[in-house]
Design brief:
heterodimer; A: alpha/beta; four-stranded antiparallel beta sheet; 37% helix; B: 269 residues; mainly alpha; two-stranded antiparallel sheet; 72% helix; 1% strand; membrane (chain B); transmembrane (chain B); ABC transporter permease (chain B); transmembrane helix (chain B); ABC-2_transporter-like (chain B)
């Protein structure tokens, strides 16, 4: 139990009602219900140190959000133990809640019909933030997120990007030590996504807050998180540096070649797994240990205009890990 | 003691800010602010016509004169005016929030979460009922025989306070059922319909049903008891019974809230 967040054998199971399709299924389910136990989070353990920015990745329904909800005290775990900042989150002590924040990209806390500023003022009272600290934090966040001009506009009239920025301000006014970000860039255009990422990076750097981020966008994870936790079907399948994923799951490298003259495809296939060929370009997947030998063979025996040896893109590795295929 | 005083001050201050934000939220739509009083007026007129039709054939019902029933109706409106303004809408929203998972945002706030779900906003759309209530009460009071004494006024005020507490606790308990059954609108709709029994004198109901409305589903403590106390139609100990009902409801609602939160499943994002 060394980190600021300690999770040991966390489990969260649900009973889900299974209904057969159609009206007859609905009538049948009135008398005889079939339930299935869903293991949303199944026996996962990890520790997170103060100031870390950790990415939680996994496909839809993997258990990422459920884990965050257990860590923020929203859900009562089926089993295991969780400690955040030394508190049992489930007890939802005010001292605990004043030190954390949960931002969910698809849920909002801003008062819809009022300018965001009114929610900020209400949050100041709920979180009992002293006025000088409130003003200082607000000014800093407004400047960082460049939203000075929209603070007095009704929330319902803001764009999704502007609204998300205001959501972040509302969530950060009390300067939380631990921040749970659940898909903060969902639905945003690429420019807004980038701005949001820059902000999260800067905030983590300035405040030394501990941040757990879930996202389906690999750019978020690649740009922000050194460490990633991969969850699939409720189970933790990887916890380590992002760079280690490729080493662990991708046992090959990608060799891309541009030929200067036409070549015999059969001869190319003898080099290794030919993934793609459309003159003048060919792409090979070659075992790590054989990659340099294959490259040298290509250079010696074929008319090469250009040759590149690359790691498998992280997105491909993770997609293959999720689908349970070998990354080859 | 000092700690308690500071806690009360904190929540009064917080409530002031909630009220302020709610008022701003309503006033942002000017047209809405002007017309939201019409519906309660129509609703009240319907009730008055119904009572007038009944009294067209009889001089009293259950020992209550026309103006005494009007007073009962006025006090019923007074109780429900506060109910709608201060918590009924929030508790309806609790049921919705449990279904959609929107309760999440309240549960991570560092303040008493039962306070936030119950009193997190003020609904000013029912303020039109205030006019109804004033009109009905000012018409009824000069026509009824109220023997004013300090004791009677104190007992009336206690029973009126008990009425608000009982309505709140009952509504809160019913809304908490959403934490167990997810869709608890059926229960809250049923409770809302049942409150109509409190618009008429309890004496018109059978003894068994009356007992049920006192101690099973205690809706007669909403307006009937305060009105009957004011008119001296029931013994004073009913005020004490009302307080006992409140204690019972506090226990039930607290158990439902705590156990329910343990079962809260949120909703997928």
């Amino acid at each position: 139990m060394s980190g600021i967040i300690n999770v040991i054998n966390l489990k969260k199971y649900y009973q889900v009602h299974k209904k057969e399709p159609g009206l007859s299924g609905s009538i049948k389910s009135l008398f005889h219900r079939k339930y299935e136990e869903v293991k949303a989070v199944d026996n996962i353990s990890f520790n997170i140190e103060e100031g870390e920015l950790v990415g939680f990745i996994g496909p839809n329904g993997a258990g990422k959000t459920t884990t965050l909800k257990c860590l923020s005290g929203l859900l009562y775990p089926t089993g295991g133990s969780v400690s955040v900042l030394g508190f049992d989150p489930w007890k939802r002590k005010n001292e605990f809640l004043k030190q954390i924040s949960l931002v969910m990209g698809q849920k909002n806390q801003l008062w819809w019909d009022l300018p965001a500023m009114e929610t900020f003022i209400l949050n100041k009272e709920i979180y009992e933030i002293p006025k000088p600290q409130y003003e200082e934090t607000l000014n800093e966040l407004v400047e960082l997120l460049e939203v000075k001009d929209v603070l007095k506009v009704q929330v319902r009239k803001l764009s999704l990007g502007q609204r998300m920025k205001c959501e972040l301000i509302a969530a950060l006014l009390h300067s939380p030590k631990v921040l749970f970000l659940d898909e903060p860039t969902i639905g945003l255009d690429v420019v807004s996504q980038k701005k949001m990422r820059d902000f999260i990076k800067e905030y983590n750097h300035r405040k030394k807050s501990t941040i757990i981020l879930t996202s389906h966008y690999m750019d978020d994870v690649k740009e922000l998180c050194k460490r990633v936790v991969i969850i699939n079907k409720g189970k933790l399948i990887f916890d380590g540096n992002l760079s280690e994923i490729t080493e662990k799951y991708a046992d090959h490298k990608i060799i891309s070649v541009i030929f200067s003259k036409d070549v015999d495809v059969k001869k190319l296939e003898a080099i290794g797994q030919l993934r793609e060929f459309s003159f003048p370009k060919a792409v090979f997947a070659i075992k790590r240990e054989a990659a340099s030998l294959a490259a040298s063979e290509l250079l010696q025996n074929f008319p090469i205009a250009d040759l590149n040896i690359e790691e498998v893109p992280i997105e491909d590795v993770i997609r293959e890990v999720f689908t349970g295929k070998d990354v080859a | 003691m000092k700690q308690l005083a500071s806690k009360i001050f904190r929540y009064l201050k917080l409530y002031f800010f909630i009220a302020k934000t709610s008022v701003m939220s309503v006033f942002i739509y000017r047209a809405n602010s002007l017309v939201f009083g019409i519906t309660p007026v129509i609703w009240m007129l319907t009730s008055l016509v119904f009572i007038s039709v009944i009294f067209g054939g009889v001089k009293e019902i259950g020992g209550w004169s026309f103006w005494e029933v009007m007073l009962l109706l006025g006090i019923h409106e007074l109780v429900f005016l506060g109910t709608w303004m201060f918590f009924a809408d929030n508790l309806d929203k609790l049921i919705y929030d449990v279904r959609t998972g929107a309760l999440d945002r309240t549960l991570v706030k560092p303040a008493n979460q039962r306070f936030l779900v119950s009193f997190g906003a003020i609904d000013l759309t029912g303020i039109g009922s205030l006019l109804n209530t004033i009109v009905v009460l000012s018409l009824a009071i000069p026509h009824v025989d109220i023997k004013i004494s300090a004791l009677r006024i104190i007992l009336f005020l206690i029973s009126l306070f008990s009425a608000y507490a009982t309505v709140y606790l009952l509504y809160f308990s019913v809304s908490c059922l959403s934490l167990f059954f997810v869709n608890a609108y059926t229960f809250s709709d049923w409770l809302l319909e049942a409150t109509d029994f409190d618009r008429y004198p309890a004496e018109i109901y059978s003894r068994g049903f009356r007992r049920f409305l006192f101690f099973g589903l205690p809706i007669l403590f909403f307006a009937y008891v305060p009105t009957a106390i004011l008119l001296g139609k029931i013994p004073n100990y009913f005020v004490g019974l009302g307080l006992l009902v409140i204690i019972g409801l506090i226990i039930i609602s607290t158990i439902l809230w705590r156990k329910g939160l343990k079962r809260y499943q949120s909703a997928s994002s």
